Protein backbone atom coordinates (compact mmCIF):
# COMPACT_ATOMS: atom_id res chain seq x y z
CA UNK A 1 0.00 0.00 0.00
CA UNK A 2 1.39 3.39 -0.98
CA UNK A 3 1.29 6.20 1.53
CA UNK A 4 1.56 8.86 -1.16
CA UNK A 5 4.13 11.09 -2.78
CA UNK A 6 6.81 12.96 -0.88
CA UNK A 7 8.68 15.99 -2.20
CA UNK A 8 10.77 18.73 -0.61
CA UNK A 9 11.25 22.39 -1.32
CA UNK A 10 13.49 25.03 0.17
CA UNK A 11 12.00 26.44 3.34
CA UNK A 12 10.97 30.10 3.27
CA UNK A 13 11.78 31.37 6.80
CA UNK A 14 9.17 34.12 6.71
CA UNK A 15 6.39 32.50 4.69
CA UNK A 16 6.66 29.16 6.52
CA UNK A 17 7.30 30.51 10.04
CA UNK A 18 3.71 30.26 11.33
CA UNK A 19 3.41 26.67 10.17
CA UNK A 20 6.80 25.75 11.66
CA UNK A 21 5.95 27.54 14.89
CA UNK A 22 2.88 25.30 15.32
CA UNK A 23 4.99 22.23 14.65
CA UNK A 24 8.01 22.96 16.85
CA UNK A 25 5.94 24.08 19.84
CA UNK A 26 3.64 21.05 19.76
CA UNK A 27 4.11 18.73 22.78
CA UNK A 28 5.10 15.89 20.40
CA UNK A 29 8.09 18.00 19.26
CA UNK A 30 9.67 18.16 22.74
CA UNK A 31 13.01 16.83 21.46
CA UNK A 32 13.15 19.73 18.96
CA UNK A 33 13.78 21.94 22.05
CA UNK A 34 11.66 24.88 20.87
CA UNK A 35 8.60 24.35 23.08
CA UNK A 36 8.63 27.92 24.39
CA UNK A 37 9.65 29.59 21.12
CA UNK A 38 7.73 32.62 19.95
CA UNK A 39 6.93 33.09 16.27
CA UNK A 40 9.78 35.61 16.03
CA UNK A 41 12.18 33.05 17.51
CA UNK A 42 11.26 30.55 14.81
CA UNK A 43 11.62 33.18 12.08
CA UNK A 44 15.00 34.20 13.45
CA UNK A 45 16.28 30.61 13.72
CA UNK A 46 15.28 29.70 10.16
CA UNK A 47 16.59 32.97 8.76
CA UNK A 48 19.90 32.12 10.45
CA UNK A 49 19.84 28.68 8.82
CA UNK A 50 18.90 30.17 5.42
CA UNK A 51 21.89 32.51 5.61
CA UNK A 52 24.29 29.71 6.64
CA UNK A 53 26.51 28.26 3.94
CA UNK A 54 26.60 24.81 5.57
CA UNK A 55 23.07 24.38 6.96
CA UNK A 56 19.85 24.11 4.91
CA UNK A 57 16.18 23.68 5.80
CA UNK A 58 13.47 22.19 3.63
CA UNK A 59 9.73 21.84 3.91
CA UNK A 60 8.60 18.31 3.16
CA UNK A 61 5.34 17.83 1.32
CA UNK A 62 3.07 14.81 1.34
CA UNK A 63 0.86 14.79 -1.76
CA UNK A 64 1.62 18.51 -2.08
CA UNK A 65 0.70 19.45 1.51
CA UNK A 66 3.24 20.48 4.19
CA UNK A 67 3.96 17.42 6.35
CA UNK A 68 7.54 17.53 7.65
CA UNK A 69 10.64 19.61 8.18
CA UNK A 70 14.04 18.43 6.99
CA UNK A 71 17.40 19.97 7.75
CA UNK A 72 20.73 18.96 6.31
CA UNK A 73 24.07 20.28 7.43
CA UNK A 74 27.77 19.79 6.95
CA UNK A 75 29.01 18.34 10.25
CA UNK A 76 32.47 19.78 9.63
CA UNK A 77 30.97 23.25 10.29
CA UNK A 78 27.64 22.77 12.11
CA UNK A 79 26.32 20.77 15.08
CA UNK A 80 29.15 18.26 15.47
CA UNK A 81 32.31 20.35 15.22
CA UNK A 82 34.94 18.78 17.47
CA UNK A 83 32.67 15.91 18.55
CA UNK A 84 33.74 13.32 15.99
CA UNK A 85 36.07 13.06 12.98
CA UNK A 86 33.98 13.73 9.87
CA UNK A 87 34.69 11.75 6.74
CA UNK A 88 34.38 13.04 3.17
CA UNK A 89 30.76 12.80 2.08
CA UNK A 90 29.26 13.03 5.60
CA UNK A 91 25.94 14.90 5.77
CA UNK A 92 24.11 15.69 8.99
CA UNK A 93 20.33 15.46 9.14
CA UNK A 94 17.39 16.45 11.34
CA UNK A 95 13.73 15.81 10.57
CA UNK A 96 10.43 16.60 12.24
CA UNK A 97 7.05 15.19 11.25
CA UNK A 98 4.15 17.62 11.57
CA UNK A 99 1.68 16.90 14.35
CA UNK A 100 -1.64 15.56 13.10
CA UNK A 101 -5.07 14.61 14.38
CA UNK A 102 -5.25 11.86 11.74
CA UNK A 103 -2.16 9.66 12.00
CA UNK A 104 -1.38 7.33 9.11
CA UNK A 105 0.18 3.98 9.97
CA UNK A 106 3.80 3.89 8.74
CA UNK A 107 3.86 7.60 7.91
CA UNK A 108 6.88 8.60 10.01
CA UNK A 109 8.92 5.73 8.61
CA UNK A 110 7.88 6.78 5.09
CA UNK A 111 9.02 10.34 5.90
CA UNK A 112 12.46 9.32 7.15
CA UNK A 113 12.83 7.08 4.09
CA UNK A 114 11.94 10.04 1.84
CA UNK A 115 14.45 12.22 3.72
CA UNK A 116 17.17 9.62 3.25
CA UNK A 117 16.26 9.24 -0.44
CA UNK A 118 16.64 13.00 -0.80
CA UNK A 119 20.02 13.07 0.95
CA UNK A 120 21.42 10.13 -1.00
CA UNK A 121 20.13 11.59 -4.29
CA UNK A 122 23.27 13.71 -4.09
CA UNK A 123 26.08 11.41 -5.30
CA UNK A 124 28.53 13.25 -2.99
CA UNK A 125 26.65 11.98 0.07
CA UNK A 126 28.45 8.89 1.32
CA UNK A 127 27.12 8.74 4.88
CA UNK A 128 24.34 10.42 6.86
CA UNK A 129 25.05 11.43 10.45
CA UNK A 130 22.45 12.00 13.16
CA UNK A 131 22.69 13.03 16.80
CA UNK A 132 19.27 12.60 18.45
CA UNK A 133 18.75 12.94 22.18
CA UNK A 134 19.65 9.70 23.97
CA UNK A 135 16.15 9.67 25.46
CA UNK A 136 14.37 9.77 22.10
CA UNK A 137 13.82 6.01 21.82
CA UNK A 138 11.19 6.37 19.07
CA UNK A 139 13.62 8.10 16.71
CA UNK A 140 16.38 5.61 17.56
CA UNK A 141 14.09 2.80 16.36
CA UNK A 142 13.22 4.73 13.19
CA UNK A 143 16.87 5.47 12.52
CA UNK A 144 17.80 1.81 12.91
CA UNK A 145 14.91 0.80 10.62
CA UNK A 146 16.45 2.81 7.75
CA UNK A 147 19.99 1.56 8.36
CA UNK A 148 21.57 3.80 11.00
CA UNK A 149 24.09 2.16 13.30
CA UNK A 150 24.65 3.79 16.71
CA UNK A 151 28.29 4.70 17.31
CA UNK A 152 28.46 6.29 20.77
CA UNK A 153 26.92 8.84 23.09
CA UNK A 154 28.30 12.37 22.88
CA UNK A 155 27.79 15.51 24.93
CA UNK A 156 26.47 18.47 22.96
CA UNK A 157 25.87 21.83 24.64
CA UNK A 158 22.09 21.29 24.64
CA UNK A 159 21.82 17.52 25.15
CA UNK A 160 23.38 14.10 25.51
CA UNK A 161 23.11 12.62 22.04
CA UNK A 162 23.43 9.24 20.34
CA UNK A 163 25.81 9.68 17.41
CA UNK A 164 24.75 7.31 14.62
CA UNK A 165 25.78 6.77 11.01
CA UNK A 166 24.15 5.34 7.90
CA UNK A 167 26.04 4.64 4.69
CA UNK A 168 24.32 4.50 1.31
CA UNK A 169 24.71 0.69 1.30
CA UNK A 170 23.24 0.37 4.81
CA UNK A 171 20.25 2.47 3.76
CA UNK A 172 19.68 0.53 0.55
CA UNK A 173 19.98 -2.76 2.44
CA UNK A 174 17.50 -1.64 5.11
CA UNK A 175 15.17 -0.28 2.46
CA UNK A 176 15.33 -3.56 0.53
CA UNK A 177 14.58 -5.52 3.69
CA UNK A 178 11.47 -3.38 4.34
CA UNK A 179 9.90 -4.18 0.95
Write the layout of secondary structure elements.
Layout: E1 6-10, H1 17-24, H2 39-51, E2 55-62, E3 65-73, E4 90-97, H3 107-120, E5 127-130, H4 137-145, E6 149-155, E7 160-167, H5 168-178
Short description:
With 179 residues, the chain is α+β, with helices and mostly antiparallel strands.
Provide an overview of this structure.
With 179 residues, this protein is α+β, with helices and mostly antiparallel strands. It has 5 helices and 7 strands. It has helices at residues 17-24, 39-51, 107-120, 137-145, 168-178; strands at residues 6-10, 55-62, 65-73, 90-97, 127-130, 149-155, 160-167. A 7-stranded mixed sheet has the order 1-2-3-4-5-7-6, sandwiched between helices. The model has no long low-confidence stretch (mean pLDDT 93).
Amino acid sequence: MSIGTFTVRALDPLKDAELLHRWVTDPKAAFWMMQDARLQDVEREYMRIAAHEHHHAYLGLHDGEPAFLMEKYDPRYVELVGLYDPEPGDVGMHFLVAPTDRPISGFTRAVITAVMDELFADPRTRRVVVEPDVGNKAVHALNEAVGFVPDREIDKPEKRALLSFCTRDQFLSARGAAV
